[in-house]
From TrEMBL:
GO molecular function, one term: pyrophosphatase activity
Domain Ppx/GppA phosphatase C-terminal: 305-463
UniProt KW keywords: Hydrolase
Species name: Collimonas pratensis
Name of the protein in question: Ppx/GppA phosphatase family protein
Cross-referenced InterPro entries: ATPase_NBD, GppA/Ppx_hydrolase, Ppx_GppA_C, Ppx_GppA_N, PyroPPase_GppA_Ppx
Length: 484
């Protein structure tokens, strides 16, 4: 069994699913409509009240998770925690409350996970499709064929911010709706061409907002009963007739959903106008199902992150032999250092494979260019935190260590940095080492026993070794090298 927790801008949601060999069946769901995006103040900070409501929800989710024997749990956060200026201060507290790490994922990664969830439900290998997801703080458009994603983009517009911007006082007028729709169109117009109907055969709406709008249309007999442009316009007309959010009275519409659905409808109408969509099919699948499938794939060693690293290294013309050699050496040295966190080994491996991507920018300072690229790249499967950790490892592969001094407070991270630096140094010195004949320790100080003839056979090795000792001693770590 797997669990996926989605910390969205409108709602916090939880799915627990059971894998049965060809599908994942949801056996438990939970939802708290906390409207986190509405808890951002004028300066972009989450208010104390908003954070407390969020923590209360996380505590409830933790109690639910505790009732199940779970293979893996993944907690992902989306747009509001991507943009909140005090997210870094809030996350450690939130992680302590729910009892699991919280991963802030990029909009593009959110889109990919949404598509994985939708594709797993449809099982149509050749269908060319567009998937739309309108969340509380962002909207994702994903183009794909079958299981394959061809294009994904995230836009900073969602149900909560659109409702607050145009219907903040609850008043619903035709003029406000016209402005809200026009605003929505402006977010999509430049990116629209690839998503127009000639590029796909079916359009699917995966978000709770889209499904709720479709259900309201059907239960109230609006338009042609489908999620069509005609039906959306009919629903807009009814909203304007009610005149205020508090007076909305439609079958199937929960009172707490009304406020955000008004803004969500404006976004959906704007999308359909700009992309030329006539009908959307709502589907009960999306981010949480995608997260659970991703967990299942990781458990079978089909990790999307491996492919992302391979594709990125190909794009930037990395020398695969050099990269693989550094990765193999670095991970072996890291194991020799006996870290308490074995999970860091995988990130060290990926970092080593990508450590020279910065050469595409410049030979000078290539490690700095590589660190920037990795931290800011769109890497499928990786979270912001994971890319940041890899970026710091890559930045620390050479030169002074003061630039990553804060990260080195973590003993295991220090061991990973040391392993990568030595692996890169051995590569540059052209030392073909036999790891069985090398000894490396790192406790209160670093101790390296290395064969004397390895040093003597490579003229630059002594220089590199001396420099490495100096760099570590500069930050207060003694580095003893013994030639055996």
């Amino acid at each position: 069994m797997f669990a996926a927790v989605d910390l969205g801008s409108n709602s916090f949601r939880l799915h627990i699913g059971k894998y049965n060999g060809d599908a994942i069946r949801v056996i438990k769901s939970a939802r708290d409509p906390i409207r986190l995006a509405a808890g951002l103040d004028s300066k972009g900070y989450l208010t104390e009240q908003a954070m407390q409501v969020a923590l209360d929800s996380l505590a409830r989710f933790r109690s639910i998770l505790a009732d199940y024997q779970l293979e893996a749990v993944r907690v992902v956060a989306t747009n509001t925690l991507r943009v909140a200026k005090n997210a870094a201060e809030f996350l450690p507290i939130a992680e302590q409350v729910i009892g699991y790490p919280i991963e802030i994922i990029s909009g593009e990664e959110e889109g990919r996970l949404i598509y994985m969830g939708v594709a797993s439900m449809l099982r149509l290998p050749n269908e060319k499709r567009l998937v739309l997801d309108i969340g509380g703080g962002s909207t994702e458009l994903i183009l794909g064929r079958g299981q394959q994603i061809e294009r994904v983009e995230s836009f900073g517009i969602g149900t909560v911010n659109q409702s607050l911007a145009f219907f903040a006082d609850g008043q619903i007028t035709a003029a406000a709706y016209d402005a809200a729709v026009l605003s929505a169109r402006s977010h999509f117009e430049d990116a629209a061409p690839p998503y127009r109907p000639q590029n796909w055969s079916h359009a699917y709406g995966s978000s709770g907002t889209i499904r709720a709008i479709a259900e309201t249309i059907d239960k109230n007999g609006l338009g042609d009963h489908r999620l069509s442009y005609t039906s959306l316009e009919a629903l807009r007309a009814r909203f304007v007739e009610f005149g205020h959010v508090s007076r909305i009275d439609l079958l199937g519409m929960k009172p707490e959903r009304a406020a955000v659905m008004v803004g969500g409808l404006a976004v959906l109408i704007g999308l359909m106008q700009e992309l030329g969509i006539e009908v959307i099919q709502p589907i009960e699948a999306g981010l949480r199902m995608g997260v659970m499938w991703d967990l299942q794939l990781r458990g079978t060693r089909l990790d999307r992150r491996d492919q992302a690293v391979h594709d990125f290294s190909q794009r930037f013309h990395v020398d695969q032999l050099r990269a693989s050699r550094v990765a193999e050496t670095a991970t072996s040295l890291f194991e020799m250092l006996k870290p308490s966190n074995d999970g860091l080994s995988q990130y060290l491996h990926w970092s080593a494979l990508l450590h020279e991507v910065g050469l595409v920018v410049s030979q000078s300072g290539y490690h700095k260019h590589a660190a920037y690229l990795i931290e800011n790249a769109d890497l499928s499967g990786f979270t912001t935190r994971e890319q940041r950790a890899m970026s710091m490892l890559i930045l620390g592969q050479k030169g002074n260590l003061r630039k990553i001094s804060d990260a080195l407070l973590d003993p295991d991270f220090s061991k990973a940095v040391l392993a990568l630096r030595l692996a890169v140094m051995f590569l540059h010195s052209r030392i073909e080492i036999d790891l069985d004949e090398l000894r490396l320790k790192m406790k209160s100080k670093i101790e390296l026993d290395i064969k004397r003839d390895w040093i003597e056979d490579h003229p630059t090795a002594t220089y590199w070794m001396t420099k490495e000792q100096d760099w570590w001693r500069e930050i207060g770590v003694d580095f003893a090298i013994r030639r055996t």
